[in-house]
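Dear colleague,

Thank you for sharing your sequence with our group. We've completed the structure prediction you requested, and as agreed, I am returning the results in plain text so they can be pasted directly into your records. Please verify that the sequence below matches your submission; if there's any discrepancy, let me know and we will rerun it promptly.
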Amino acid sequence: MNLTEPHTEPFASIAGLASTLQRAPGPVNLWLEFERALGTAFGHRLFTVLFFDAEKSRLQRVHSNQPDVSPVGGAKAVTESDWTRHVLREGRIYVGSNAADIRAAFSEHALLASIGCDSVVNIPVRKSGVTVGTLNLLAAAGHYDSFSEPAALVFAQLAADPLAECLANARADPADDAALEYV
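Please find the predicted structure tokens below.
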């Protein structure tokens, strides 16, 4: 899959996403619209959306632009780490610039390297001060070194209610946790 290269100022992408969501006459594929807008704003090779269930220490994927590599429905047990503290507990954006950063943060680093993903930005999505999920963009090394955190925070806020709803739905219909990956 080709890298989606950014070609517009990030706030134009945000406005486009908000306009699409406001004007949609019926259900839209919300996460596909986020994929397009974030790709336009920042570029990505891999884009995933995960909700975070703090009670179960679990992340679960609700969208992926490469489901053969990173399948929808995949769940990860969250362990305590610098990444967990930074992104999930403190709600701060994580930018990893190279393969060493990816190796330090993700157990699936070899898989990510195999598809050319040597940099990452994880955008925590928070509602009422609690992380409910993450928007995750991956690309070639150094791709996010001049990433716009203010724009990312606006994208995250647009995703807060839908991800909180994903979390509520998952808690209402608990999944089997036996086959979780550990990150």
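Summary note from our side: The chain has one domain: 44-182.

Kind regards,
the structure core
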